[in-house]
Amino acid sequence: MSERVDRLVAQVLTLEVKLMACHARLTAETDSEALHDLRITVRRLRSLLRPLRDLPGVEQLEAAAKEVGQLTTPLRDKEVLAAWLHQQGMIQAANKRSDSLSEAYASVATSPALARLFNVLEAFPRFVRASQHQKLLRGLHTLIEKRLNKQWKKLKAAMNDPEHDRHRLRLLIKRVRYGAEAYPDLTHSSKKIQASLKAAQGELGTWHDHLQWLTRAEQEHDLAPCVVGWHLGIVRAERKADAALERLGRVCFGR
């Protein structure tokens, strides 16, 4: 038990250091990947916390991490779209979106949401140690394993549903994938399974991007020249996503 708790505290501290580095990069605007790396680190933190729900301090930390995720999602969507437009040579449309990002990065770096996350994150190891001292963490290993298995069962049920929702599948795959990375000793996730999860997540991400872009084009009229291509693209993305999901089903569930 002590080793499991020590490992949990070490993981939280490592993620805290990574978040601080991302925060510094955002503040100084050193590179274009700072926001993306911040979001990935927050996602890894939430994946670490998800199986620990109901334990002291977890709810507050998870809520703070979720708030930062919600704050940064529209900015990341804008980043991805701007990058795509640049690649297509639509420089004016790309700049229109990327020019506003600098101010947005500063806004995230100084946001109450991020400050709240750092405050709760700093106190969390003390909550864990206090809970350990009060013997509230008995059975932690079994609890985590049980909840990770429940995530896999949810994914399997969703994939077996002929009317599956691609958006929900994308979220479930993220949870399983990052959960397995957070607790590699408690899952049956081999390198082959992790690779299949990553591939399926990537294809579903491409589908999701096209869906988002088509929705934006209804309001942002300078995107009109892209609409026909995006309609074709989303059909291709659906086929690739379904093929990746089929491969994932075979690798993970022997379908």
C-alpha Rg (nearest Å)? 20 Å
Task: Provide the succession of SSEs.
Answer: HHHHHHHHHH
CATH architecture of the largest domain: Up-down Bundle
**Segments where pLDDT lies below 50 for 5+ residues?**
none
- Number-wise, the strands total 0
Q: What helical percentage do the residues reach?
A: over 70%
Index terms:
10 helices, mainly alpha, Four Helix Bundle (Hemerythrin (Met), subunit A), 2 domains, de novo design (two linked rop proteins), 255 residues
Commentary on this structure:
α3 (58-87) packs antiparallel against α6 (112-133) and α7 (140-160) packs antiparallel against α8 (166-182). The protein is built from ten helices and no strands. It folds into two domains: 1-138, Up-down Bundle (Four Helix Bundle (Hemerythrin (Met), subunit A)), CATH 1.20.120; 140-255, de novo design (two linked rop proteins) (Up-down Bundle). The relative contact order is 0.10. It is 80% helix and 0% strand.
SSE arrangement:
Blueprint: H1 2-28, H2 34-49, H3 58-87, H4 91-98, H5 101-109, H6 112-133, H7 140-160, H8 166-182, H9 191-217, H10 227-253
Helix pairs in contact: 1-2, 1-5, 1-6, 2-3, 2-8, 3-4, 3-5, 3-6, 7-8, 8-9, 9-10
Short note summarizing the structure:
The chain has 255 residues and is mainly alpha-helical. It has helices spanning 2-28, 34-49, 58-87, 91-98, 101-109, 112-133, 140-160, 166-182, 191-217, 227-253.
